[in-house]
Amino acid sequence: MVDTLLNETLLMNGTNGSLDNSLNGTMSIHEQSSQCLPSWVLNAIGVKSVYASDIAVAIVNILFAIFAFLSNLAVIATIIRTPSLHAPVNVLLCGLAAADCLTGLVVQPVYASWRFLLHHLGEPCRLVHLYQASRSLPFLFVGCTFLNLAITSADRLYAVSRPLAYRTAVTSRGMAKIVVSAWVVWIIYICLMETVVPKAIYEPMENITLTLLIIIPVGGHILTFLAIRTNNRKILCATHNLQHATLYKRAKKAARDMAFYIVATLLSLVPLVILLNFENSVIVGNLLFPWAATATMLVSSVNPVIQIRRNTALRKALKTVFKRTTVE
């Protein structure tokens, strides 16, 4: 899916600056038309409509990259500097914010640079490493986001199903170890895919991997809300344990908040899903796929807004940390 995201089928006539209606230039992301870059890249150079679109794509990505980096960094710093926020669920929020922060710091600038320099560098073959990075990095960090959401879905299911046991069994330190370990395993897996996996099975493996990363958090949150529906009356009405009811309410609210992140992330993929049915269309391939890629990366700017808007404690702590920093 990410290959398709970045494999804008640039079927252009590079000599007259108009769209080429033939499909002869279509190539797979792994096929090379020259010693360095595929033909759909080389044929896009000099096409005015693609140039104008790519300039706009670069500007949008850079502006939102700055916002994504700063806003997610503020969320991470606030959680770290506020002891009352040192809870397992907020460790998961830090993991999500870290992935989004790195998207703003690395992925969006790399993608913007790739689209911009394609039209301004006299020797396109010098961009081969930037081209490869623009393919690999989104896969890496989109995967990190969904990996965090998958861990979160399991965490929330446990929290709403057994709130008292969850409180004693799950700690912030333990959750941090789980998140870090998952990231390390994921990075190793991506490195192996990029260096060891044969080209013939690379794309099927990538699609299967991302499909699992989507299905697991979505399925986990569906099970979580089914558990909430089952336990609502039993815990809130039948029990006389006030602590049990309070913990359950907190876990239920956190589960609902996390659902917003999943919805936002899935919505960011909608343009890609729609365009996949028209990937052989000249106009779609040349002018719309870069914007679909951008929409996917813009979720890194949306998530911190959701966190601050939905989490009252985080919002108050953010104001306190900001005032304290300003005074110092």
Automatic annotation (TrEMBL):
Key words, A-Z: Cell membrane, G-protein coupled receptor, Glycoprotein, Membrane, Receptor, Transducer, Transmembrane, Transmembrane helix
TM segment ranges: 55-79, 91-111, 137-158, 178-202, 208-228, 258-276, 288-306
Highest taxon of the lineage: Eukaryota
Record's keyword annotation contains Transmembrane helix: yes
Membrane topology: Multi-pass membrane protein
PROSITE patterns assigned: G_PROTEIN_RECEP_F1_2
GO CC term (a single one): plasma membrane
CDD domains per UniProt: 7tm_classA_rhodopsin-like
Signal peptide: none
Residue ranges of domain G-protein coupled receptors family 1 profile in the record: 71-328
Pfam families (alphabetical): 7tm_1
Chief place where the protein resides: membrane
Keyword Membrane appears in the UniProt entry: yes
GO molecular function: G protein-coupled receptor activity
Localization: Cell membrane
Protein name according to UniProt: G-protein coupled receptors family 1 profile domain-containing protein
The organism of origin for this protein: Desmophyllum pertusum
